[in-house]
Structure formats: structure tokens, C-alpha cells
Write a structure and sequence with these properties.
- There is one protein chain.
- By secondary structure, this protein is of the alpha+beta class.
- It has seven helices and 13 strands.
- It has helices at residues 117-120, 131-134, 140-143, 146-149, 155-162, 211-223, 248-254; strands spanning 5-9, 18-23, 26-33, 36-41, 56-57, 60-62, 69-71, 88-94, 97-101, 126-129, 180-185, 195-201, 228-235.
- The chain is elongated and about 85 Å long.
- Residues 107-127 and 133-138 have low confidence and may be disordered.
- The structure holds FE2/S2 (inorganic) cluster (FES).
- The site of FE2/S2 (inorganic) cluster (FES) has 12 residues, from loops.
Length: 257
């Protein structure tokens, strides 16, 4: 059973101060605001970044890595790119000391489908696909986008096609999320005039759990256009994605003001 554990003396933390402690093998971020103390997992639920050194504004701490904010009183995720709470813990001050009792459960951490960063963070990964290898697996709703697929192939049209690709957790398309860095049409090498399309795409984090799905859907929707002979998707992590890359439409959709 979890019990209160002394983590500091009350005056060790100044107003607005923070402290990283380890309890039962778990890293816990302890904050002081005015004369109140709070404790949350030192784990950002977006991609596992540490929170203890994040900027504290009122009761909101910002993850230093990509800017997601959490309420230190409850652990609630307040802003993108985090959408799930981090765990909060019970704190009491007694006889001039600060005690923390861990909540039940384990740290939610980032979504479980994560590859080690070493596998996901390569600056660029190229994948080439042809329409023939993909059309059988294209979702029906994608194939129904006849009006787009009958348009003349150009960069703007590819971006419109890519608006069909949505982040599976946020339900916002990759264009409005600001994940598409570049679309390039390569010169046709075949008599039928079909062209290869190269898409430079980023992720909200190097180990984005939705990455494989987003790459696959990107290839599918572009390859479905009849004037496309192949699609190359390059994952580009430099410059890194930041929330300000989102369009106003995406921010509205996510309730970010
Ligand atoms: S790891 Fe915290 S916002 Fe990305």
C-alpha cells in the first residue's frame, strides 16, 4: 500500500520552485505555488519528456520539449500536443516537511506503441511505393474522393489530397497540423506522363506513435491519384515540429486559443 514519503523540508522550495524526487523507483516532479505543494509524474504524456524543469505559469507547467501544458494540481493535459493526463499525487505538509503519497497505477507515459528513439529519429527515412501495391488496401472513403482525383496533378492538389490524412488521436489532418514541410512533383519518366511525388513530412515527436499510420495513409491518398506513378515519403525532424505550425483551423478544432 502506498504511504506518505518525506521528500523535502517545506523551505527547500521557494514559491514557484520545483524539485525532482524518486519514490519507489518513479520520478516525481514536486512544485510549490504560494504555500501549496503539488506532485505529478515527471513524464509528459506526449512523448515522455521530463516536466520538472518546465516553465511554470500559475498552476500550468509547460513541457520543455514541445510545449504541452499540464495542470500540476490534477495532472490534466491542458494543451497540445499532449492529450492525456499525467498522474498526480497526494501531497501534505506536516511539521515543516513535505510528504508525497503515490497515486495508484503506473505512469501513463507516452502511448505504448513507441519505438526506441534510435529507430524513429533518423533525420530522413525514404519509402517508395507504387499505386499498384497500394490500391487494394486504400480505405473506401479515400477512394471516394473522386473530385480530387480527377483534378490536374499539382502541389496544391497534393496538399488537398493530404487533408484526408488525419492524426488518429487528434482527428486533425496532417496539413492543418503543420506536418507537411514540402511537396515536390518529380519530372515524368514515362510516356503516360505520370509523375512521382515526394512528400517531406514531420512528426510531432521523433517517436510519434501515430507515425507508421500517418506515413501509410499519406502514401495511399497520393498514390490513388491517376496521374501519380509513385510516392516517396521522407520523415524530416529538422526543424522540429512546434504547435505554432498548426493552422488556425487546427487550433480551433483542438480548442487552443
Ligand atoms: S514530450 Fe512533452 S510536449 Fe512533447
Amino acid at each position: 500500500m502506498n504511504e506518505f514519503v518525506k521528500v523535502a523540508t517545506a523551505d527547500e522550495l521557494s514559491d514557484g520552485g520545483h524539485l525532482l524526487v524518486e519514490i519507489a523507483g518513479e520520478l516525481i516532479a514536486v512544485f510549490r505555488v504560494s504555500n501549496d505543494y503539488y506532485a505529478i509524474d515527471d513524464v509528459c504524456t506526449h512523448d515522455g519528456g521530463p516536466l520538472v524543469d518546465g516553465e511554470l505559469n500559475g498552476h500550468a507547467v509547460a513541457c520543455p520539449r514541445h510545449g504541452a501544458k499540464f495542470d500540476i494540481r490534477t495532472g490534466a493535459a491542458l494543451s497540445m500536443p499532449a492529450i492525456r493526463s499525467t498522474r498526480s499525487h497526494v501531497v501534505k505538509v506536516q511539521d515543516g516537511s513535505v510528504f508525497v503519497k503515490l497515486s495508484d497505477g503506473t505512469s501513463s507515459g507516452p502511448t505504448s506503441f513507441m519505438k526506441p528513439a534510435s529507430e524513429c529519429c533518423a533525420p530522413q527515412v525514404s519509402v517508395v511505393v507504387t499505386p499498384e501495391t497500394l490500391l487494394e488496401s486504400v480505405p473506401t472513403e479515400v477512394l471516394e474522393s473522386e473530385s480530387l482525383n480527377s483534378g490536374k496533378l499539382c502541389e496544391d492538389l497534393v496538399r488537398e489530397l493530404l487533408k484526408q490524412v488525419k492524426d488518429p488521436e487528434l482527428f486533425v489532418n496532417v496539413v492543418d497540423l503543420g506536418l507537411i514541410y514540402a511537396v515536390t512533383l518529380l519530372p515524368s519518366e514515362t510516356p503516360d506522363g505520370k509523375q512521382k511525388v515526394s512528400v517531406d513530412m514531420t512528426m510531432t515527436s521523433p517517436a510519434c506513435p501515430a507515425g507508421p499510420q500517418l506515413i501509410g495513409d499519406t502514401k495511399r491518398v497520393v498514390a490513388a491519384h491517376p496521374q501519380v506513378s509513385g510516392v516517396e515519403v521522407r520523415i524530416v525532424m529538422d526543424p522540429p515540429w512546434t504547435p505554432d505550425r498548426m493552422t488556425e483551423a487546427a487550433k480551433d478544432q483542438l480548442g487552443i486559443f
